[in-house]
Amino acid sequence: MDLTIFNAVLLLLLGLAAGVINTLAGGGSNLTLPALMIMGMPAELANATNRVGIFLQCLTGALGFKKHGKLDTQDLGPILWPTLIGGLVGALVASYAAAWLVKYLLLGAMLAMASLMLFKPSVVAPDLGTQAKTVAESSSAKWSLMLAGFYGGFVQAGVGFILLAALAGSLRYDLVRANALKLVCTLAFTSVALVVFVARGQVVWLPALVLSLGYIAGAHYAVKFAIQAEASTLKWFLFIMTLLGCIAAFWF
């Protein structure tokens, strides 16, 4: 891949947009992955290279939510370990196998989320202040988180929606707190995935670092927006991003 000035500026802007989208909903990688591939990067290298920005975006966003007191940590261990196991398995599968199922997995996840947001929004978007459950109190949470981790380790694109479904749907966190925990979960399995991809020499570092600058800025501003926005605004943003994710998955 030849990183021209035009490509660098484009990656920076797409990273900015993806950082906002990923922090508030999910699906930002639907912008960055195709861009890297259009610029001449093979799919497996694009998938690995994109993870550097995702890692730094999640770190930035999680610290931002923590600063504003919106990151719940009392049940963090039980939430994290299923996503880590799933992320490791998913990254290994992505590194060694063809990803021909990705389109159908992504499209299915987006359609399911869009349907829930349209017909039963309270399932995946509880009201602010809703009493959250622990992983031990929810029979489905552990498996939902492990599935999200596997998917995130495998392809990343759209994993935010699956994590929100687990955190808001199974554990009943409101969207602000669910987004904060989503970033921590994504940070966890992205760290595992990055180790695999770096060890196999699949990260192209210069485009990764340029893209990361945009991701970091996007996450920073998205956290400020999330803290100040009305709950209904966050719900509509999530719904719109879900519909756009469906379109992106269809044309993936």
From TrEMBL:
PANTHER family hit by this protein: MEMBRANE TRANSPORTER PROTEIN YFCA-RELATED (PTHR30269:SF0), TRANSMEMBRANE PROTEIN YFCA (PTHR30269)
Protein name in the entry: Probable membrane transporter protein
Main location: membrane
Alphabetical UniProt keywords: Cell membrane, Membrane, Transmembrane, Transmembrane helix, Transport
Transmembrane segments: 79-97, 104-123, 143-168, 180-198, 204-222, 234-251
Mode of membrane association: Multi-pass membrane protein
Family of the protein in this entry: Belongs to the 4-toluene sulfonate uptake permease (TSUP) (TC 2.A.102) family.
UniProt keyword annotation of Amino-acid biosynthesis present: no
Cellular location(s): Cell membrane
